[in-house]
Amino acid sequence: MPKSKRSTKKRKRTSCKVNCRARIIFQISEFGTYNVRTFIEGHNHTMVPTVSRHLMPVNRNVTPAHEIWITSAIKANIGPIRSFRMYREIMGEYEDIGCVSNDFKNFVRDLNVYALDSDAHMILQTFLNKKELGNGFQYFYDVDDENRLRRLIWTDEVSVKNYKLFGEAVSFDATYNTNRYKMIFTPFTGRDNHGKCLSFGAAIISREDVDSYSWVLEKFVECVGNAPPLLITDQDPGLKKAVAAVWPQTRHRYCMWHITMKVAEKMPQRLRDSTEFKTNFGNIVWSEFDEPAVFEENWQNLMDEYDLLDNRWFSDMFDDRSHWIPAYFRDVSMSGLFRTTSLSESENSYFKRFVHKNANLMLFYMQYCSALEAQRHNYHKTTFADETGVLPMKTRLKIEKHAATIYTNNIFKEVQDEIDDSQTHCNMYKMEEQVDESIYTVHDNVDGKFVVRHRLSDTYTSCSCNLFVRKGILCKHIFLAFRTLQVERIPDKYISIRWSKFSILSAMVPGFELGSAPSQNSIIGNNKFFNIVGNCIGYVGDNQVLREELLAALIEVEKRFAKEGRTESKLQAKHRLFKDFYGTTAPEVPSVLPPLISKTKGSGAGGRRKSNQEKAMDLAKKPLRNCKKCNTMGHHDSRNCPTNKLSN
Fold this sequence. Notes:
The longest helix has 28 residues, at 361-388. It contains 24 helices and 15 strands. Among the domains are: 49-114, no CATH class; 119-254 and 336-378, Ribonuclease H-like superfamily/Ribonuclease H (Nucleotidyltransferase, domain 5, 2-Layer Sandwich); 259-323; 409-499, no CATH class; 620-647, no CATH class. A hairpin with a 3-residue loop joins strand 10 and strand 11. With 648 residues, the chain is of the alpha+beta class.
């Protein structure tokens, strides 16, 4: 039998062609007058009502005002429908807009078509232009055997400066569905002097394998100058191999949250409901005060008590303990900045609010720049509040007032808590005087006993809790010793530059000034025009005379520039706008082809794979429903009732 042809479902569309013969034809006479040659009055259809005439194609047109509005909305990750609704709110009525929502959508479609199959070439050309400006912009890319882009990394001058100052610890975590090719977006994230997210650079890769991660890590060092002392990631095996091979001197730490979330599904069924085990396990693995030997002893005792010595997952986690247990990072500088990748995940979520999942590479980069500008603007807002506002004191100690002048407000709150706790939770248990050292044993009502050593020769002070090493701020135990020693100011050696106020940073670090990324808006000065027109509308207010005068003046200006401004055709004007929007021209033959759609663990519609515990938590959030078959309240109905399996 011959194969049946596959039927394609045709879209049902209306047609405006109804073969209407109504017309009027004029003819010029020999005297230069017009005579009616043909006149057919009757129509075979009803006329368009007055209220709908603005919907006729002849009355619809995407004007320059629309174009500027739509392109500005795209950069802010606002789609055509939402931007159309916002434009309607400004215009007041739909018939005053001049077009319909489909016209907005078609304009965005044409904008995407302009860069179709050329966006990889265009983004590389944009990066090359930025680098040639000499402003510190760096980028590297890699192509496959078919000359398709598969890896790209970039940084700017501001990001590199930030890394030099705040790059002691870096979080690196992949995010998905940020572009039409489903390439993995991998930003390098740190903390600024306010403790907020800070971007050091970003990359996009087509595959999550050892080669791709190794390439990214190598090129990141070429961009910023050196590898970070501490890197925190998830347990990706390819990333683990890449870090060990490319950054052998970097301490690689796993996200503890990802590991501890797996405990519930990895433990035996008999322990699933044991809150005692979960509490004991959490106390052991999350403690930052235990030495490695103490942790190992506590772990072995716990495994022995609950008969888990033969459990493969717990054995593997113990073998890998130096990558995630805080006890093995007590002596690592700034290791307390990250114990989980939550900062990276927060940063990824932040970028996703700016980036559309179907954006081409050029749109993705422009929206990324918008997110970066917003991040740096928020830094300046926080800095302004920090430099102009004073937090209330909790104690009467002079050292607290001194701390308030040094640290940013967010960090001062933590230092302030340590100073307050030194009075409310700590007591001097024992003091010993040696030749060149005073030893204080502090009893902490919350965390136990700790030893503070104060060297007399150089006033060096340390605590066995190692908080200053781990996070760069003094602990409550040292503040208690300082009170005993009558120290009223934090010594300069214990003032961490990275947590200092902006004014102190600017004075101590030559050339430090956290700037902003250059604007991606190629149409320079549009904001001034909008501000001036908006101000004029606001100034006239409800004064009808002034409103009519302003409108008449604007109409005259519009008529003048409509004649003297654009000289090219409508199509040429649209292509020029597209070129201005992207900042580069789409080539006829691109030198680098765009990547194919990546097949990664995060490219599916469901996102990353969820653990059984996460699935159970999501299910618990759903409302219960009454099953008519078993007459019980649950998360099922008669179609998928558990009794169906029993009856079968």
